[in-house]
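Board notes, transcribed. Complex of a protein with flavin-adenine dinucleotide.
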Amino acid sequence: MGGLRADGTWRNWAGNQVARPARVERPGSEEEVSALVRRAATEGRRVRVVGTGHSFTGIAVSDDVLVTLDGLADRVEVDVASGRVRVDAGMRLDVLNPRLLDAGLALPNLGDIAVQTVAGAISTSTHGTGLGFRSIADAVVGLRVVTGDGFVVACDGGQNADLLHVARVGLGALGIVTEVTLQCVPAFNLHAVEEVRPVDEVLESFADHAAATDHAEFFWMPHTGRALLKRNTRTTEAPSPPRNRRHALRRRWKRFKNEEVMANAVFGALNHLGRLRPSLVPRLNGLVAGDGRAEYLTTSYEVFASPRRVRFYEMEYAVPVDCGLEAFRRVQEVVDGLGRPISFPVEYRVLGADDIPLSTASGRDTAYIAVHVFRGTPHEDYFRAVEAVMDDHGGRPHWGKLHFQSAATLADRYPGWEAFLAARDRLDPERRFSNDYLDRVLGA
Ligand SMILES: Cc1cc2nc3c(=O)[nH]c(=O)nc-3n(C[C@H](O)[C@H](O)[C@H](O)COP(=O)(O)OP(=O)(O)OC[C@H]3O[C@@H](n4cnc5c(N)ncnc54)[C@H](O)[C@@H]3O)c2cc1C
């Protein structure tokens, strides 16, 4: 995991962003957050709050005052009747999920990990998959935020509703979020079916799968002609008890193989080997893709999210869903024409439109295409070539994943761009919360 080190530096999870903050603040209350912002204002310092450092971009980096909300990460207040849950902004999703389950509730959708903080996840428009579902930020119905002058603004449907509308995906540019209220749904299970199939067949049929399945996605393993198609269907059916001990062990092994062996330990070892001998990568990818099929049913968050222990760099783009598969095919051409093997899969997901100004799915049903490389391996030519494809489709980069855009290239891609800038001028006119990344993507 990334985070603060004994030598005073801060690193993100992937290790490609390093900061040397002048001061680290660990507030234990909203009053302490206000006080530290006021102090920084008096000193003319910039302030940046970090979550768990799972962004690949420099969005969380601070060489001035760095704030961690580990001390504001525990409180959960559930209103069972409405399904609304008020939580500390620094709470991690994997801490929140079991506590929601205890209350008979769940988040409507999740990404493929759950170690992010609530505020970190919503701030970058973190999402999962499913055309009938939306990003995590879309579940936000209330926020409390400490603004650039240290005042607290409470936003919900009744008060400051215009600010709530914008601040759900705030990039950390509008202030320090101290509390989030989430509209949850009754707890549910997911019936997961995972199959390795020829990638051409998956591309042909994916639009139907996406329309017919709650949560569909696929991973193409470059140089193999194969893809892992994942389909998750929501259900209240309980997991069936295993028929016998052997059956139980076989079930456990199948999941373990998918998550731990293929996605983590063995995958990591194969990537190390591929770095030493790039010519082996296509054969190694074949091993990872395998021929398997797994089917299981369990609690929603255990299916949506799984551990990622192999570190990588990632770029992800959001394009209108109607041109998603065409853009994906062009990414395949980029990979095939790159002149060196790529050992990480290309991921494809879909999501319903929302109305949040800087959400990557703002105003349009969306397809997400994500490319990855093993940490520490060359990626700029690959990612730039993929970005050129996405530019042709009005692509919006994930705020927390690598890209090369600037405010000048991004402004036209968001219908709510000006509304966001106006909220920023209102909440942080002195740019107390800016950093180099925000100066680049939002303008100084
Ligand atoms: C292995 C891996 C898997 C991932 N999977 C997915 C996925 O499936 N889907 C997806 O969309 N993304 C995914 N991501 C990206 C990740 O969800 C985002 O980058 C997310 O923002 C990380 O949350 P964090 O808590 O680590 O925040 P950080 O990366 O630490 O910070 C992100 C931003 O949030 C701001 N922020 C944090 N706390 C606050 C606060 N209290 N108030 C105001 N601003 C705040 C920071 O200033 C910064 O701007 C993945 C990343 C990794 C490394």
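The first helix runs from residue 30 to 43. Residues 189-397 form a domain with the Vanillyl-alcohol Oxidase; Chain A, domain 3 fold (CATH 3.40.462.10).
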